[in-house]
Amino acid sequence: MASSSDAMEVEETQTHAQKTRAIQIESLPWVEKYRPKQMAELVSHEDIISTITRLIDSGKLPHLLLYGPAGTGKTSTILACAHRMYGKHFGSMVLELNASDDRGIDVVRDQIKEFASTRQMFSNMPKLVILDEADNMTNAAQFALRRVIEKFTRNARFCLICNYASKIIPALHSRCTRFRFAPLSDAQALERLTIIAEAEKCNVQEGGLEACVALGIGDMRRSINILQSVQMGFGKVDPTCVYQCTGAPMPTDIQQVLGWLMEADFAVALSCISALMHEKGLALVDIVTELHKYITLLETSKPLAKAQLVVCLADLEQRLSVGTNEKLQLGGMIGVFQQARVAMAA
Fold it and tell me: Where is each AAA+ ATPase domain found (predicted)?
C-alpha cells in the first residue's frame, strides 16, 4: 500500500514538473523559444555550417572566430555545433561567457584557465570555451587569452564571437579560423518568420511578415522581436501595425516627404515635413535612412548631383548621431535638396 502511494506521489511530482517546464517554455521570448537547437534548423550560411560540420565530424575543429552584424546566427551556430559534439554532456563540456560577465584579465587567468586546463576522464573530445561579444574584452584580457589558447589547445577549443573583427588583436586572429556571418537575405528571414507565425497562430495579414523582414534589415533577432511585439500589441500582423509598433516611417510617408523635397519650395517643404513628423512621431534620422533608398533610384541626367546629395545625407546622419538640433538639421536637409534640384535642372 505504501509503495503504491509512493509511486503515485512520484508520478504527480513528475507531472507537475513537466507542466511547470511547459509553462516556462511557453513564457519565453520567441527569440529564445525558437532558437535553433540542431544544425539542420539553421536557415542561412550553408557554406559555413557545412564546413564546421565536416571539421566536427573529422575531429579536427580549430579555434574559431565568428564575426558579423547582430542577429545573423553566430551564437546559434556555435551552440548547435556544441550540442552536436557533446549531446547530453553539453553542460560539463562547454563554458559560455557573455558581455554581461566580467571578462577582464582576472577571469582569463582564473575561470577560463581553470576550465581549459582540465580534461574529462571518459571523453577524448576537447572542451569548448565560447566567448560571446569578445570585442568588448579589454586588450590586457585579449593578450592573456592569447597565451591560454596556445597552452591548452590539447584540452580545449576556443570560439570568439564578435560584431567587429577589427577590435580583436592580431595575435588572436592568427590563432583562429575566421568566418564572417553576413546579414540574412529577405527570403531566408521570411521563411523562418513564416514558421514561427504558424507555430504561434499569429493573425498575419498580407504584407505583414514582409514589413517585419524589411525593418529587420537582415537581423533575424530584430525581425522576430518585431513580430512578437506586433502580435501581442495589436492582435494582428499587417504593414500598418508593424510600422506603428516600431515607430518607423511608412513607405508612403517617405514618398510624400521626397515629393515635397523635390517639388515644393523651402518654406512649404519645411512646414509640411515638420507637421508630418509631429503628427506621426517620426525621427529625422529614420527619415534620412529611408530617403537614401529612394534617392539611389532617382532617374536623372546628372549622376554627380545625385552622388553629392547622398554624401550630404551621410554627413547629416553623422551629425544627428552626436545629438545636434533636429530642427536645424531638417532645414539643412531641405536646403541640400534645393541645391540638388538646381544642379539637376541646370
Answer: 60-191
